[in-house]
Structure formats: C-alpha cells, structure tokens
Amino acid sequence: MYLSLKNISKIFPPRGGVSEVTAVNEVSLEIERGELVTLLGPSGCGKTTTLRMIAGFEFPTTGQIILDGVEINEQPPHKREMSMVFQSYAIFPHLNVNENIAYGLNVRHLPRPEITERVNRVLDLVHLDGYGDRAPNQLSGGQQQRVALARALVMEPKVLLMDEPLSNLDAKLREEMRTEIRRIQKTLNITSVYVTHDQIEAMTLSDKIVVMNEGIIEQIGTPTEIYQYPKSRFVAGFIGRANFIGGKVLNQNHNQMTAEIFGQVITLSGLQNTFSPGQRITLIVRPEMIDIYKSGGGFPGIIRRAVYLGNVIEYEVEIGGELVTAAETDPTKMVLYPEGETVTVNFSETTIQVLPANG
Amino acid sequence: MAKSETMVNIPTSRFTGLLRRYREFSLIARDPVLFMSLLFSGIFITVFVVVPLFRTISGGFFNAEGAFDLTYFGRYFDDYFGPGMRRAFFDTMTMGLLAATGGSLVGFIFAYALVRCRIPGQKVIHWLALLPTVSPPFALSLAMILLFGRNGVITRRVLGITYVQGMNDIYGMDGLVIVQTITFFSVSYLILRAMLERLNPAMEEAAASLGASRFHIFFTITLPLLIPGIAGSFLLLFVESLADLGNPLFIAGNRTVLSAQIFLAVIGEYDYQKASALSLVLIIPTLVIFLVQRYYVNRRAYISVTGKPSGSQVVEKSPVIRWGFNIVAYLICGFIIMLYATIIYGSFSSAWGVDFTPTLRHWQMTVTRGVEAILDTTFLSALATPFAAILGMVVAWLVVRKNFSGKEVLDFTSNLGGAVPGTILGIGFVMTFNKPSIALAIGVYGLLALFFAQVVGKNARERLIILALATAAGVGLAQVPSITIYTVIGLLYFVLAGILAGTKQGRTRVIIAAVIGIYVMSNNWAGAITAPIATLSRSMERGFWSNAIFQLSDHIKVLIQPPPSLLAIALVFAGILLTLGIRHRGLRVGSGVIALLIPCTLSFMEVPFSLVGGAYIILAAYMVRSLPASVRAGVASLQQIDPSIEEASNILGADAQYTFRKVTLPLILPALLSGLIFSFTRHMTSLSAIIFLVSARWRIVAASILSEWEQGGVSIASAYSTVIIILVLAAIGILSLVTNRVFRGRGGVDLSIGL
Ligand SMILES: Nc1ncnc2c1ncn2[C@@H]1O[C@H](COP(=O)(O)OP(=O)(O)OP(=O)(O)O)[C@@H](O)[C@H]1O
Ligand SMILES: [Mg+2]
Questions:
Q1: What is the C-alpha separation between B365 and B702, in angstroms, rounded?
Q2: What spacing in Å lies between the alpha carbon of A54 and ligand 2's midpoint?
Q3: Which of B21-35, B92-106, B279-293 is most confident?
Q4: B648-704: per-residue pLDDT in tens?
Q5: Chain B residues 663-692 with CB within 8 Å of chain A
Q6: Relative to the alpha carbon of A27, which ligand is closest?
Q7: CA-to-CA distance for A66 and B351, rounded, in angstroms?
Q8: How far away, in angstroms, is A22 Cα from ligand 2 center?
C-alpha cells in the first residue's frame, strides 16, 4: 500500500464553550499508488479533517499515517511532498499565474530554466497557456480553479489532495473540470485523495469511494460496488435513491434465500451475508429495480403519484400500506399509469441487497 | 451497520488531557519559528507588561521594609487625609464622566456631519478631527492657557477680564474637561463614523415608508443601533480621561485627580508605596471597563452592525438639522485651528500676554539647548517603531492563525500594556527594573535555555548535556569580572564560525556567526568608535550642530551596547539559527553548548535587567504602549486573509518562516505600515508611561515641555510642542508617500486602524 491510514481519530479539544468534537473516529484506509480515492459524505462528517490530517495540517489524536512505508504522523506539511487543491483555491493574490505555479518550485530552489519549462508544461496541461502573466483577480472562477490545480500538479507530488475543488463552479463547468481532473490524474498517474459531498462527482471520478458518516467510514468500494452492494442503509440512501422494505427470513441456503415481504414469499439470490431463519431484515430496492405491470404475478399495489420526467416516469406505489418509489426507465414500456390505478409490482430479485433490520 | 459497533470509546480523563497538552507542546517545538515567536512575545509581554503591572498593584500593600501595610488605603477612610483623598477620587470620576460625555457628543456631531450631512470640505474636516491624536500631551492645555488663562489673549486682551482668584479662570474642572473633550473626541468620531457608515439605510427607509417621522426614526432606529458604538466610545474616552496626566498637570488648577496624585507621589515624595496604592485605585475602574469593552461591547457591536459600509447613505433632508450639525462642526474645527495656531504663534511671541512681537529667540533656545531632548525622543521613538510594529504583527499572527493553550492570555496581556494608564506602567517599570530580583533573570534564562535545548538537541541526553554544560560554563564566566568580556564572547562566536566553516555547515551560518561576533565585540570598542565623534562635537562652536553630533555618538552607543540581559535573549534565538539541524552529533552538541553559553553569561552579568536610567527601558515602554494598536491592525488584516493561502504555501514545501516572508507579509504590509505610523506617533507623544523613566542621559521632549512650563517658559514649551507636531506629521507624510508608491493607490494606509 502506498498510503495507509491506520485507526486514525481526531478529537478537537473543547474550546470557547464548545465541547469536545470527535471529528474522525477510528478511520482506516488503504490507497494504492496511482489511485484516485474519493471521500464522500454529508457535511460535517469529517472528510476535510481526514484530508487535513493526511496533509499534516491537523495532528491525529490517535492512529498512524503511513506513506510509502514510513510513518509520517509527525512530519510537518512542508516535508510531506504532497500537494493540495483548496476549496477556496487559495491562490496567492499578490502573485501572477506564473509566479503562483512556480511558488513551490522556487521553494525547492530549482534552476530557473527548469522552473519555466515545468510551469509552461503544466499550463499547457490545464489549458491555460497564454495566461501566465495574468493577476489572479483577472481570472474567471474556472481559470482560478485550474491555476490551483496546476500549482499542485507542477510539484509532481507524492499525493494530490483535493478538498471539494469544484464546489465553487457552476454545474456545466463542474462537469467539464471533472473529466479534466480525471484525465490529468490518469495521465500523470498521481495518487490522489478527493473530497466531495457530491455523489455524481464521486461516481465519475473515483477508482475507489470511501463513504463517511459522522466521523466513521461506512463503506469502501468501487463506484459499482458502492451502488450495487451498499452495506448500510446510510450508504444506500446517500448514493442514489433506495426503498427500504422490511421483511423476515424464512430460509437461507448459501446465497439463496426465501423471505417474506408484504405477506408474500419471495426468493432472493446473490446474497453476501448469512441470516438465520426468522430474523428481521431490510431489503434495499432501488427505484429502477422495480417493474410495474398492469396485471400478472407480483405484489398488488395502487399508484398514488405519477410524474412524467421525459426519460423516466416516477411512481409512488402503495404496497401493503407502504409507499414505495419506482422509476420506469424502459422506453418500450412508457405507458403512464394514472393515479389510483391498481397494478402488480415486481422486483428484479437478483440485485436486491439484504441487511439486518437495524442496519 | 450499527454505530455502536464501530464507535470506540476514547478515554477523556484528566490524564489524557495533560498528555495532549504535552503532545501539543512537543508539536509546537517541532516548528521552531512558531515556537520562537511564541516564546519571544511571551517573554516580552511577561517581562515588560505582566511583571511591572504586578509590581505596581502589589506595591501598595508593602512598605519600604517589605512588611504588609495598608496605610495608604486607610487614608481614604480617616478624618485627616480622607476628605482630600475622597475628593480627588470623585473629581477624577467626574472628570472622566464629563470628558467622556463631551468627547462622545463632539465625536457624534462630527460623524453625523461627515456621513449624513454632506458637510462641505469633508477631507479637511476629517483631518482636523484627527489632528488632536498627533499632538503632544500638553499642547492643547498650553494653548487653552495661552488663550483663556490669566494672561490669555482672549480673556484679558479681547474681553478685558481681570483675573479674580478662584472665580473666573480656565484652571479647574471646566478647563480640564474642555481640553480633554478636544483631545480625545477623535476616537469617538472614528468609532461612530464607522458605525454610521455601516448602518443599513434600508432599515431607516423602511421605517420612513411606514410613515414614521424623522425624529421617531432617529430615536427608535438610528440611535438604538448606534448604542453599542456610543457606549464603546464613552467607555474608551472615560478610560483615556482617567489615564491622562498631561492635561491635569497643566490645567487642573486647585483640583487634583488620581493620575496627578500618583505623579506627585513619585516625583515629589519618592514614595512608591503611595504611588502604587493610588495606582490600584486608578487601575480598578480602568480594568473593569477594559474587560467590559473586550467581552461585552465589542461583541454587541458585532451583532448589531454587520457588513461593509453600504454604498448608499441616508442624507439628512432637513436643512435645519443638516446645517445645525455642520455649523457646530465648523465651530469646533475653528476652535481646533485656533488652538494649534496659538501654539505655533506662542513659540514666536516675545513675551506672551505682554508683548506679542514675533521673535526667533525661543526657537534658538529650543534648537540648541533642547536639541538633545528632541533628538533623543525622535531617535528612541523611531528605533522602537519597527520593533513594536513587527512584534504586533507576530502577536496578531499567533492570535489569529495559531491554536495553542494560553492564546487568550497572550491576546489579553498584549492589549493590557496599552490599556492601563501610562503612569501605572511607568511606576511598575521603575519598581521592576531599578533593583531587579535575580528571579527575573533566572526565569527568563531558564525558559530560553529549555527552549534552546529542546529545539537543538535531538534526544533527552543531548538536551541535558547542552543545558548543563552551557549553564555551568556561562554562570562561571559571568562571575569573572572583566572589562573585556565582550571581546571574549565575540571570539567565541568566531570559534563557532570557524567550526561551522570547517565542517561545511553552509556559508550563511558562518557569516551570521562572524557578524554577531563582530557586533558583540564592538561593545568593547564603543568608546573608540564614538570618541572621535564626541571630540568633533566639542571642537565645534556650541550650538545645534555640536549638540546634534554629540547626541549621535550617544545613539551609536545605544545601538552597539544593549543591556546584556536583553542581548542574551536575542542571542539565544540567533544561536538556534546557527545550530539548528546540524547533522553530526558531536558537532551539534558542541556548537549548541557554545551558542547557549554566551547568552547564559550575558544573562547573569552585572545586575541583570537593571535597566532604569538607560535608553532600553524607554524603548520597552514605548513598545508596550503601542503594541495593542499594532496587534489590532494586524488582527484586522489577517482576518481578511483566507487561512488556506498560508496552508497552500506550507504544503508546497515552504516552512513557516518562508511562508511568512513570501505570503503573509506582503499581504499584511498595509496594516504593518499603519502600525508603523501609529506606533511612531504614539511614541513621540507619550508622556505618562515614560515620565518616570527619563534620566539625565535620556531626555524626552514631553518632560522638557513640563519643566519649561514650570519655569514659566511658555514660549519654549510651545516651540517644543510645535516640533513634535511637525515631526509626527512629517513621518506620516513620508510613510503615506511610500505606501502610495508601493501600493500604487490600491489599499492605502488606514490611519484610524489603530485607534
Ligand atoms: N478546528 C476545529 N475545531 C473544532 N471542531 C472542528 C474543527 N474543525 C472541524 N471541526 C468539526 O469536526 C467535524 C468534521 O468537520 P469537517 O470539516 O471535517 O467536515 P466535512 O466533512 O469536511 O464537512 P463539509 O462537507 O461541510 O466540508 C464537524 O463537526 C466540525 O464542526
Ligand atoms: Mg469540508
């Protein structure tokens, strides 16, 4: 492993009437060379704090940070050879674009020609050639963002840290920069940690997503794993949308299970956990896993709400007294059931995740 | 996944709290620049603020023999001294209340006229309103006396009033309050002006659109919103008035106030116990108000007025009100101009009150006999200025950017020295640095040595060796009475330079060591350097130039002969720069010992910290007085800089020192320059804090003004005042020019920032 966090916690001591805050709680994380890992989670869940501990701006209360086999807990930020792109960009306002990018190289006392060459190369990489002499206040938000990125990249850092670098941009630019960052990261093969609370950003960028909540890691996995096999209700609810349907185990045979939901027996396959018969469970059903038919076998339901969104039709269906969200994405079936219509509902059973009821 | 499964209970006992403190300490130690700034500001503030104030406060309780004694507090309650003491106390409070009311009122009139009444000549009025802040302490009293005194131009010449004892003169509470009102209203003007500008006009417009009358709006909306500002300015003025020494000495007549009582206890009776006891009486209301200001008013002010100055301003519509304010403001401006014109003309008139024909006689006296005081004041003020401003920035940086235990204390104490009445600080200085206790030297050296060992040594053994060897050798060396000690020390630096050069530790270190060596050695050559200058001055015809050149030799001596205990502090830090990060173990320990041994010797030479009578105690007093303003200027500007800008520099490989130089400093430069201007002004015009510190060798213009006045030399006193005003204005002009050059118009210097 290139970068590992071992049981990292951060407790901010009480100060000024605010009691102690456990911002990060026993976080362990492994990052391989060249990987881009995203820390994803709601506001205040400790993403920034984790990132800042990796950078060295915060000192972990417990745990170890290991970079390339060496514990770096006690190393100050300037010795870590990492780079960081800040949410506010933190461009030096008194330096122009060239000077901003060359700053770190100057700190290292590299020879002038090399600095110029590297600055120009990275300007090229972020599509900012010709902007070198601009003052920061003469740049648009997107350009400033690229300067911040260039300034970090030019150092050829061991680890590139990014704290919500796109949150100040408008939606279109964000999409553009997202692909751009991924392209550059892949080209240069830079180990990166990326903080965001935007799940789409995380899905499109990452090799690996770390979902955090209230200071702990809920799940680590590839975007597909996280989406298809959420390990907790929180993850399922945070990444995409999900229905949580309560049920009871009847019988389990390896990864096959029969369970009772809405008073009917249903067979589930591809299970990852084992349950005992009689145990209460929660089924995680994504809206697009739900098929609605006029009639036939399945759960009887009543359409309570129907919204036509163009590429999708969204329904709220009442099954056994509970409201379930369904999304019809198959264009061949684009028939709009009116509200109040009785229908039958089917789940694509192979892709349903099962968790213990309190999970 | 249940949360309770993953949540590991982290123990939070007292022990882990302590452990965390220690971790924090060793973390800070790993960042030498942070540690150095922390330690340096901590030591400076402890030695020059906390200890002296403590000495003053406790001094009232102990008599000359050191026994516990409440005599002077008892006097407030006995029948013999009681009535007089109590009257002085009530007079002091009356003075404070009246001056604060008057000053706030005048400040409000100016603020309202400038912000809301479109007073013609805005710029000029603004500068006139700030003029009293740059005048020497007695100037306005002097002018008042020249105008309205027993021989006053207006009272006697114009109105033909003859003086009747105790009836109709300017001396007394009335004159004092008028003078203080004019002297202190500038602060109130700036506070209220800022508040008025930030008031959101929408609120008043909304009220108007609801049909409220103008008076109704003023009393229900505008005034309540201004209350925090008015309260703040009132309290500030109250404190300033209580602390004022110059005006009461001149114009209080047969009334006495606390500050003057304290002054007389020291100067007239040499009774420091009495002075301390009175100081305690004076410091209590001051401290209470300081605390209220800090923790209540400032917070309130923040809540009720938010945001930047709004672009559009409400303009007073009623011409009666508008011109009412404008005319009053003009009249006061006229009065101010008259006061200053009087001072200037006073310095040229043959014999004020009798013969007004202009003459240069007083000026001739001033620039010959007085040149010593003028040059000393200017030199010391200027020398203290960069140190005060830089220290202010460092403290501001620590307070705004860094998290450490005791930050609140640093913030508080750094402000304290400027907030307490100067007399109290001055007394504390004399009591602390006249016959200083050796504990002070031990404490300071101990802290520095521990810090040095912690930073330079790599493990406990190395640290112990450095500490033990250096301290033993240093203390031993300090016992050897030798006039050539500085030469020895200088040679030690050359040895160090030699070692560093021999082992290839980098050219910078070698040069630094050699330069320090030469500097330290020159201490022994000071006589040789300055003697020719002194001889030259004696060979010249007595007059301005001979005196000025003679002073020059004194000033050079100040630069190359700092008191050993202060030099030691600087050399500890220099020693760290020289020995930090040397790879080879023996070399590291060896040069560490040498670099610490020297400051140790200096720390315990002669009588450590006996500074009274010298120049450095005046420098320190100046710095303490102007520190709060620089800190505030620095805090204000740092708070506007995104902290991640510094972090960006840090993670790009720059350490704290590089970051400060290349990023922070350029960004706070405007604030730094304002701090410089303000500090210089404050130094040049300060009286109460340094009046007890002047000596035959180091004279201060303010003291000269006082003594001239006591001898009836009002014209010379006027000339001195004029000189101070001119020097301060010149300094402001030059610095503003420089900043306008540097910043080419973007973000100039804000003079009001320090107030
Ligand atoms: N210096 C600090 N002192 C005390 N508490 C802090 C400090 N910094 C962060 N916290 C607390 O730690 C928790 C985690 O904060 P953090 O900034 O890491 O969240 P985040 O996941 O980055 O949130 P966001 O998405 O809003 O940026 C929060 O509850 C926050 O209030
Ligand atoms: Mg964050």
A1: 16
A2: 14
A3: B92-106
A4: 999 999 988 888 888 988 888 878 888 888 889 889 988 888 888 888 788 888 888
A5: 663, 666-667
A6: 1
A7: 84
A8: 15
